Amino acid sequence: MLLQDTLTRSQKQLSPIDGKTFRFYCCGPTVYGPAHIGNFRTFVMQDVFRRALETGGTRTLHVRNLTDVDDKTIRDSQAAGKSLKAFTDQWRDKFHRDCEALACLPPHIEPSAVEHIPQQIAMIETLIEKGNAYTSEDGSVYFKISSFPGYGKLSHLDERELDLGKTQNERANSDEYEKDSISDFVLWKARRDEDGENFWESPWGQGRPGWHLECSAMIAEYLGDTFDMHSGGVDLVFPHHDNEIAQSQCACGGDFAAHWFHIAHLLVDGGKMSKSIGNMYTLADLKEKGFTPMEVRYVLIGAHYRKPLNFTLDSLSGAKEALAKLAKAAAKLADNIGSEMSLPSADFGPFQAAWDSLNDDLNTPGALGGIFTGLREATKLSGKDAAAALAGLNRILKALGITLPEILEDTAEIPADIEKIAETRWAARSGKDWATSDKLRDELQELGWSVKDGKDGYKLTKI
User: Fold this and answer.
1) Is there a contact between 1 and 13 (Cβ–Cβ < 8 Å)?
2) Are the C-beta atoms of residues 3 and 11 closer than 8 Å to each other?
3) What span, in angstroms and rounded, lies between the C-alpha atoms of 294 and 315?
4) Which CATH superfamily does the domain covering 2-263 fall into?
5) Using CB atoms within 10 A of its CB, is residue 424 exposed (0-12), middle (13-18) or buried (19+)?
């Protein structure tokens, strides 16, 4: 697979550093509320990436964290009158249910920030010992970015207009701070009254880790100082991922991530998502509007990951129609197999172009287009050729994480003219007049009926 690398701004071919397993880390959710479709665009595209690697025969190790302690989780758990654990567990479980509904594979390892506070404290101690961090008057600890000459290389700070004057004389104590300034960032936050009982003991006093530190500590724990890839939304490039690079390389050495994979923003109706506008849709919101999670997934992979996706309710309606068309064409292909067995296949047949698109910078819209193009050819096949094509279709659908909807049967009475065509076709098929049989099958399809042959007869289904 060729994939764009954020650091070098070029496409690079992916292969495991150790020659065995492609090890990658994804920044996961902050569990303080339901994830919205903007969050899920990133998670779904990461899922397609993993599925494509595995479909191509590459073993993966997928690590994705859970942020269960930060400014937002503490603030909102206090407002809800719940313990931090009870509050974040509730939203963690909701996130898992939504991921399952969207057909996202669970990560192989899913560490949480709270579970790894000892590792974070140990990393801070190392950074202080090496002169990359310092303690402030209140017991907070900050990373000194002037101690890391390569700071900002991921986001290409030298090419951007930023307030560089804050570097030496200001600090950023909140977990998320202004994106247009450079400040020493917090590694350990001294306990404050508003934190309530959410604090831990440390060599610098009571407090908790800063948000940026958790990923560095968990990456060191599960992937080491050099690994294959790091991924997240494009909004995390600066400062979060620049901060991770600085912390990790100073504390651990190594090259950190060999590749950086970032997914572009999601827009809604051409603009930003906003609670005040009411367009910050969750999966539950879209279910209430009559759309399935698979239709949501189809839309989320419908634009290239490096381009902003404009999400609309009309696009969901379009996804519903597209999935129905795919299901009908797949059913026709299955019917064409007849009595032949569908055997597993290592190639993609008519869907090779779709597979090639997926391996060319994860071009999901190209892959979807390739499926429709491939089906036009595949539905003309029969017997063993149709069976091989169906195996190829199933492989590419699995790589995209797409499950086709069932074609619902119509319990209405079969019209006499339809029944007559079906009987004539069965007679032709029984007499091995395959040309007439196929012609009449196509005629029934155009009239809105699918026919499935059995050993002793056929079954008509309203499409």
Assistant:
1) yes
2) yes
3) 13
4) HUPs (3.40.50.620)
5) middle
Percent helix / strand / coil, the chain, rounded to 5: 45, 15, 35
273, 277, 279, 282: CA torsion to nearest 10: 90
Q: How many whole angstroms separate alpha carbon 253 and alpha carbon 242?
A: 15
Please tell me whether the overall predicted TM-score, pTM, comes out greater than 0.70 for this model.
Answer: yes
Q: What is the CB neighbour count within 10 angstroms for residue 8?
A: 10
C-alpha to C-alpha distances, 33 to 50, 68, 76, 97, 335, nearest whole angstrom: 26, 11, 9, 13, 46
Q: Which of 266, 302, 364, 350 is nearest to 1 (CA)?
A: 364
Token readout for 155 is 């986001």
SS3 readout for 400-435: HCCCCCCCCCCCCCCCHHHHHHHHHHHHHHHCCCHH
Region at 196 (left for phi over 0; alpha for psi -120 to 50; beta for the rest): left
Cβ atoms within 10 Å, residue 378: 24
239-294, pLDDT tens digit by residue? 999 999 999 999 999 999 999 999 999 999 888 887 777 788 999 999 999 999 99
pLDDT in tens, 54-83: 999 999 999 999 999 999 999 999 999 999
- Torsion angle (degrees, nearest 10) of CA 211, 216, 221, 226: 160
Residues 165/151, Cβ–Cβ less than 8 Å: no
Q: Tokens for 459?
A: 């079954």
Residue whose token pair is 């306990």? 191
Sequence ranges of the domains in the chain? 2-263, 283-400, 416-462
| CA separation for the pair 188, 183 (Å, rounded) | 15
Q: What is the pLDDT of residues 154-188, one digit of tens each?
A: 999 877 655 554 444 467 777 665 455 678 999 99
